[in-house]
Amino acid sequence: MSALWWPLSDSNGTTPAGFPDNGSCFSATQSTVLKGVGFGGVPIVLLLDFCVFLVLLMVFSIIRRKFWDYGRLALVTDEGFTESTHRRYGHKSSIASNTDELGFCSWLPFILRMDEGKIKARCGMDAVHYLSFQRHLIVLLIVLTVTSLSIILPVNMTGDLLGNDPESFGRTTVGNIQMGSNMLWLHTVFAVLYLILTVVVLRHHTSQMKGMRRETARDTLFVCSVPKTATEEAVKTHFIEAYPSCQVCAVTLGYNVAKLMHLDKEKERAGKNLRYYERVLEKTGKVELINPRLCGHLCCCASSEKVDAVEFYRTQEKYLLEEVRKQTELVPQHRGYGQIHPEGLQRSGVSTLKVNKWSVSFAPHPKNVFWENLSLRGFHWYMRYLMLNFLLFFLLTFLTTPTIIINTMDKFNVTMPIYYLNSPIISQFFPTLLLWSFSALLPTIVYYSTIGEAHWSRSSEQLSMMRKLYFFLLFMVLILPSLGLTSLAVFFRWLFDKKFLADGKLRFECVFLPDQGAFFVNYVITAALVGSGMDLLRLPGLLLYIIRMVFARSAAERKYVKQNQAYEFEYGAMYGWCLCVFTVIMAYSIICPIIVPFGLLYMMLKHLVDKHNMYFAYLPARLDSQVHLGAVNQALAAPIICLIWLYFFSVLRQGFWAPPALFTLVVLCITVFICIGYTCFGNFKYLSPHNYEVKEEDEDTEKGVEENTTVYLPRVLDPKSPASAQEGSKMPSYGSTVGSPAHSTSPLAENVISAMATLVAWEVSFPRQWDRDRKRPFSPSIASLPGQLGNRTGVKNYKFHRVLFWGKILGLKEDYFIAQGRGEDEMKDKKTLYSFNCMDWMLLAPATDSVIEEVSKTAKGRFVGDPSYVYEHVEIHGPGGRDDAIQEEVVTKVNEESRLAVTVHQIDEEASVVPRGAYLKSPHGLVQINRSFGGLSHSEAGKLDNFLHFSKAKNLKKKSILEMGDLNPAIDFLDVLSDDIPKGSWSLQLECASRVLVLRSLLWPGLTFFHLPTTPQHGHIYIGDGRKNLDLPFMI
């Protein structure tokens, strides 16, 4: 290979000895298409891509306006099955609509105004880390844009090696500078500075990462290769005897549940379809007939025999119930979980144990486990992994750069009719569009191949997806096009075929040639504009939705498809694609600086599109921190590749012994040495881009509280989990399902049913004296409960009878978690506590009238999140006469802790809700829980008169004597919601086939109440910014 390099150093870097000077680096044989055009075709590609982007944006806005739910799939899908199906179909539904997003393009300012609090509440902490990563890359690219356009680009244009034609794209590249010019040192220095700057920016990003969690449980071991004959008692006895210093809490055997989970999903689906037609029969009295064949509703199958829908789905549900019962009786597979006391484990200091053929390691979090994949292990898993990746690599060999298509057309003179056109649309726009299309297809292929690998945890799956996608995209988009090759097949011929080298057709001066630089600029433009528009439309998801609708056999199944069409956000794929384009930008930021501003445009549009899709179109996913930190490591590869590219350019143009080339080589070797030392041996940690601390969630709590309540079983095998319980995320959402308003289900309603097991564990986590009566109703958190409520040693000192999670008030810096402790008198003996981490709780002072008045004058805007923050209000008081020369300035100061106390007090006074009869008032005035309360009936639950304010009555004295005569003083001692002014300040809905009643306050947006009719279960929660809707009277 070196024999090809060295003559280039003697040939002025443009035409190597032994090669004809064709004046162009394109094929001089039959090529009629790949001809250079004005300024590399960048202006025309930018114009065309911008027009396409506007069209796609217009189409998306129309679709979103006309078919509202397509623009927000994550808010209208039904949360009804296991977590493993989230990654393929998604399950979340919605319940209310936000007027800020109903306009033609009103979603755009909504996304621009969206703060981190909304993203965190809707999408989880992983979304915050992902968007923070993109923002740091945007800041980095802003700096690179300034330096590239103000320093490197003018330096490149000072040369005259490629002529002075203003339409020549080559004048903007480093190839325009004469050999031996000292200006080349500038590029080398800036490449090193870019590397240092990237490390600094990424280090700042990791330092800002909060809420980092462990994927592995602190006190649970994952044991593989357990014999099928082993029992839980035998495994537990072994651990007790082998490790007497450890306290063994529980042992759970694993099962091959892949088929069981599939059957359970189908059973749930059949049950939903059955209930749909039962409701239709109940309301209309008409027996619905369906065609049981696939595509039965189409014209070609419309004449087929139809059957009773209720009987068909009832029979199907019974059959699936029996199949599920048979599957649960099968023998366990070769793995199990064992929970031990963490103190003993830390003293033993062992992270990996081997007993005969056992393989022992720390267990991942149960929500991070793909239970259906645990049956694949050992040789079978590795063979599956190798075969899938071999097929993927084989496909990549023939699906690399789209230039091969045009070159193939040239060989057969197909393009001769357009010989005289020399159109930049053909020569620049279509190749870059094809390259983007193939690079957009590749993530889908990698995605399904990674799912086929059957990883045991979500984090390992996302890591594998990110690394594979980044590697393949890098070859497809950057490495092979940069070398002027058309596919990996040519790459292998270049490496191993001596005859191929001897032909002299490979021209190394065409590496990093001006036209190739323009090719990458055009690719980044296409990825920024066309790619962002296509990401908004999500056409593959729409196509899959249409296919599923076609194969649906009935209206119930079509309703199910509408409610189950969202995916979890694939962080691995998004990280890989984003990092690939970022690497392309960095690699050519020195050689071709004009690419950097378009790279900044790509990253900004990508950030906005991802923020929109995460909030509206995708379901939240829980990941381990290693995925986010792995993305940081891969981002660091971008400036290193930039150094490699610059080194290759220096060697090809000036020779190996040129001072800039040697300096670049030394810096490159030092960087690679540090990376290898850090990655393989853990050295040079102070030079790494990582600067974070894993959040020890249970560090200050009594050890073992959370872990001991964790159940390491899939939902289908957990006897304590109700049939409709979900392992998926319980993020709050909103919206109404268009097309089926009468039967729309909500995540709130589903979570109420699924929260029962969580609530029991939540209440049990407190000392028994806090809740002497285990049958009393709860006030749960409808959204995901933020960990165990408090430090036992901190909360129990208040001697509460019970502690309830009140809600969360969002702040700009921190969020306030609110809890309430109840004493003997449920209304008077009530104290409020707040916390930032749900471990350290502080008591709020009561809100007096004077404090309420001061807060009403002073506090404005959002909560800051700092209890010591001081609000000030200045009033000018004068004597009141004509001569106001003497004036007094009165300053009122209130801290945010007082504002928090007043806000909680006002919400309790105006929006706390209980069902009628849930509480009793004794003759002595003591308010206590009514233990005989069995819940409102379904007819009573539909009336606002049967719900009361849980605060001191204000309207009872206004009632007439006749009205008071109809009231029961034992239970009717509170104000009813129907008397609230203004009328219409409450939204009442019966959901889940009238199984769950949901009340929402329009006066205090964010307060939600639920009640399960005919049961004592009820409660309310507030999650909002703590601001009252003062415009409500004008909105009703």
TrEMBL record:
<dbReference type="InterPro" id="IPR032880">
    <property type="entry name" value="CSC1/OSCA1-like_N"/>
</dbReference>
<feature type="transmembrane region" description="Helical">
    <location>
        <begin position="523"/>
        <end position="551"/>
    </location>
</feature>
<dbReference type="GO" id="GO:0005886">
    <property type="term" value="C:plasma membrane"/>
</dbReference>
<feature type="transmembrane region" description="Helical">
    <location>
        <begin position="572"/>
        <end position="605"/>
    </location>
</feature>
<feature type="domain" description="CSC1/OSCA1-like cytosolic">
    <location>
        <begin position="220"/>
        <end position="373"/>
    </location>
</feature>
<feature type="region of interest" description="Disordered">
    <location>
        <begin position="719"/>
        <end position="739"/>
    </location>
</feature>
<feature type="transmembrane region" description="Helical">
    <location>
        <begin position="469"/>
        <end position="496"/>
    </location>
</feature>
<dbReference type="InterPro" id="IPR003864">
    <property type="entry name" value="CSC1/OSCA1-like_7TM"/>
</dbReference>
<protein>
    <recommendedName>
        <fullName>Transmembrane protein 63A</fullName>
    </recommendedName>
</protein>
<keyword id="KW-1133">Transmembrane helix</keyword>
<feature type="transmembrane region" description="Helical">
    <location>
        <begin position="661"/>
        <end position="679"/>
    </location>
</feature>
<feature type="transmembrane region" description="Helical">
    <location>
        <begin position="385"/>
        <end position="405"/>
    </location>
</feature>
<dbReference type="GO" id="GO:0005227">
    <property type="term" value="F:calcium-activated cation channel activity"/>
</dbReference>
<dbReference type="InterPro" id="IPR045122">
    <property type="entry name" value="Csc1-like"/>
</dbReference>
<keyword id="KW-0472">Membrane</keyword>
<feature type="transmembrane region" description="Helical">
    <location>
        <begin position="625"/>
        <end position="649"/>
    </location>
</feature>
<dbReference type="InterPro" id="IPR027815">
    <property type="entry name" value="CSC1/OSCA1-like_cyt"/>
</dbReference>
<feature type="transmembrane region" description="Helical">
    <location>
        <begin position="137"/>
        <end position="157"/>
    </location>
</feature>
<feature type="transmembrane region" description="Helical">
    <location>
        <begin position="184"/>
        <end position="204"/>
    </location>
</feature>
<keyword id="KW-0813">Transport</keyword>
<dbReference type="Pfam" id="PF02714">
    <property type="entry name" value="RSN1_7TM"/>
</dbReference>
<feature type="transmembrane region" description="Helical">
    <location>
        <begin position="44"/>
        <end position="63"/>
    </location>
</feature>
<keyword id="KW-0812">Transmembrane</keyword>
<feature type="domain" description="CSC1/OSCA1-like 7TM region">
    <location>
        <begin position="385"/>
        <end position="655"/>
    </location>
</feature>
<feature type="domain" description="CSC1/OSCA1-like N-terminal transmembrane">
    <location>
        <begin position="46"/>
        <end position="203"/>
    </location>
</feature>
<feature type="transmembrane region" description="Helical">
    <location>
        <begin position="425"/>
        <end position="448"/>
    </location>
</feature>
<dbReference type="Pfam" id="PF13967">
    <property type="entry name" value="RSN1_TM"/>
</dbReference>
<comment type="similarity">
    <text>Belongs to the CSC1 (TC 1.A.17) family.</text>
</comment>
<dbReference type="Pfam" id="PF14703">
    <property type="entry name" value="PHM7_cyt"/>
</dbReference>
